[in-house]
Amino acid sequence: xxxxxxxxxxxxxxxxxxVIEVGGTVTVAAATKRFAxxxxxxxxxxxxxxGEVRRLPPFPDDRPHLDRGGFHLALDTGKRxxxxxxxxxxxxxVLGRLAADADLAFVDLPPADAERVLATLERASRASxxxxxxxxxxxxxxxxxxxxxxxxxxxxxxxxxSIQGREPLRYAPFAxxxxxGATAAAVGAAALRGSxxxxxxxxxxxxxxxxxxxxxDTAFFPWALTGSVQPRRPGQSRMAYPTGAYRCRDGYVVxxxxxxxxxxxxxxxxxxxxxxxxxxxRDPASAPRHFDEFVGLFQPWLDARTRYExxxxxxxxxxxxxxxxxxxxxxxxxxxxxxxxxxxxxxPGVGSLTLPGPPFRIEDDGAGDAWALRAAPRLGEHTGExxxxxxxxxxxxxxxxxxGVTR
Length: 407
Fold this sequence. Notes:
Layout (H helix, E strand, L loop, with lengths): L17 E5 L3 H11 L4 E6 L23 H6 L4 E4 L5 H12 L3 E4 L3 H14 L3 E6 L14 H8 L1 H4 L14 H22 L6 E5 H6 L6 H7 L17 E5 L2 E6 L5 H8 L9 H4 L8 H13 L3 H10 L3 E4 L3 H4 L3 H6 L2 E6 L3 E6 L26 H7 L4 H9 L5
Parallel strand pairs: 1-2, 1-4, 2-3, 4-5, 5-6
Antiparallel strand pairs: 7-8, 8-9, 10-11
Helix pairs in contact: 1-7, 3-4
């Protein structure tokens, strides 16, 4: 896709929208990325020394660098960076000037810091605000700080991913933070659209625990329906086979295939059409006792095929199936290539970087792309530029720098 400034591209959906990001966390960076990549002008207000998202590995050659961390390069695309100490009155004055003409602000800070920043935004800004905290702005846990891991613990999701009698399985790093960021982005978009439609300025309170609890991945919904907590049992399901993960010649496929006619067709594919109506496999009461016999029929067929060969042949008989890919393989998948699901970006000091493409597509008139990938900023790369835009003279900028308010 074309980079910003190339040709006479049509305006992106959020072009002309001014967004402020405060906090430097994975959550808030993930939220504002949804706006920056679709054309909004996002100013990332960063603390002296940089925030969480810049300090997270991996780093090229395992050499830590505030401008080259993987999370920063992926989540801060297309933003401008200014460094301001919001713990000072002068720093909050900078934020107030910046917010005066902003449309939307995202804040993810420890509770005491968040209160000062939210007060500044309320006095100085017409912008709607999305405040992200672990437990919300009120209640007995409002002042608590959490990590990505402990936030997951409050949400019940690790319980869902535990094997009976064992400790919970580990999630990917910051999976919960990224999801809370996606929720915050959706809230921000709704607030922005509402205010532009004649509505009022909104202050939205996004509690990370609540954002995660409302996801279908939690154990809440089965409990709400049945009144019981359902533990996860290890190994392949002996009841709903062939649903599950099965080994092929070069890895695994995942299958959801108890439905008809796929289940009957599977026996025909295996050369055992005579078993398609066999009550040993069809009767729910007897099927679990004959699971090993089923695997004895199915596994030799899988062992002779690659994941993609199994995928194509099982899909042809109506089976819901997919090859199980790791991250190193996802970008080479034929569908991903056809759709442009991943893009490469040249990053100074890093080289060519492969990043996920647009999370959704928007039709346009063919003159340009709604989504564009641009490099993440260096720490404080745009401080002087933004201060110029806010009307700070050179002497004022020098004074702020010497006082340690800016960088």
